[in-house]
Design a protein that fits this description.
mainly alpha; single chain; TerB-like
Length: about 290
């Protein structure tokens, strides 16, 4: 990538995180990933310019060198706007503005459906896996309780991406097939307050699994990563995958995550050091 693209790409990512007037921990994690990938030395200056309102989307878009950089800018912004759940109206308005400034066709962006392109969906799954792994490092025991709502929200978002509404029985079957358990009495009351109505029907399928996999950053990272990609396959293929296929895919993606973990371990540790648990818990709504 052209080194001249780094600063505008990072600035666009920062603007995306602030599109609705607030930047939560999941969005900040996604921005941090963009910064780590770009390796730009201008982060503090860019952050100050963004905070002061001194950077405009149209100007930043005009600075990008080619079509690849423009697509990278949009995919990154889309992943950030979806990092804390499906893009809200303010975030969708930002994405609309960005798409226009980048001169991208609507078929590439798919803003109004809230449906990210494949690369952006992969990034969303990765960021959620990093975030749940980071929660494992925190000393506060409440951090483990946040893992379940994050996983639930991720599955909900993936279902939306594929144009399907989350069905309680479907997700329970998916969870049971993946060995995530069927009982959640210990966490149910707390999780209800955090994630609201949709999660209520899912607790029987996933909460016990969250308590079991929450035994270390690497294990939780792998479980969340595998869950996200299996859910993607499950919904993409119209829920026609057999239990054997789902179990095989879950094992396969967990192995992939084990290989990936050393490459993102630094990001997980860094993210853990900047997490605001109370802010994260307050923002966990489906």
């Amino acid at each position: 990538m052209n080194t001249a693209d780094r600063a505008p790409l990072i600035a666009i990512a920062m603007l995306a995180a602030r599109a609705d007037g607030r930047t939560d921990s999941a969005e900040q994690a996604a921005v941090d990933a963009v910064v780590a990938k770009m390796g730009s030395p201008d982060v503090s200056k860019l952050a100050a310019q963004v905070a002061a309102g001194g950077l405009r989307v149209s100007d930043l878009a005009a600075r990008l060198s080619d079509e690849e950089a423009r697509h990278t800018a949009y995919d990154g912004a889309l992943a950030i706007c979806n990092a804390d759940g499906p893009a809200n109206p303010a975030e969708q308005a930002f994405l609309d503005e960005l798409r226009g400034a980048l001169d991208l066709e609507p078929v590439v962006a798919e803003v109004h459906t809230g449906s990210p392109p494949p690369g952006a969906l992969d990034e969303i799954i990765l960021q959620q896996a990093i975030l749940t792994g980071a929660l494992e490092i925190l000393p506060d025991r409440l951090a483990n309780i946040a893992i379940l709502p994050l996983q639930l929200r991720m599955v909900y978002q993936i279902g939306q991406h594929h144009g399907q509404r989350l069905d309680v029985n479907q997700v329970k079957d998916l969870a049971a097939t993946l060995g995530l358990g069927v009982a959640a009495q210990g966490l149910e009351g707390v999780v209800m307050d955090l994630v609201g109505g949709v999660a209520r029907g899912l607790l029987g399928g996933l909460a016990a699994g969250a308590t079991r996999v929450a035994s270390g950053a690497a294990i939780t990272f792998a479980a969340t990563y595998a869950l996200g990609h299996v859910a993607d396959q499950y919904y993409a293929q119209g829920r026609r995958l057999s239990r054997e296929d789902l179990a095989r895919l879950f094992a396969q993606f967990k192995e992939d995550a084990k290989t990936l973990y050393p490459k993102v371990r630094g990001q997980i540790e860094q993210r853990s050091g900047t997490l605001n648990l109370q802010s994260l818990l307050a923002g966990l709504r489906l």
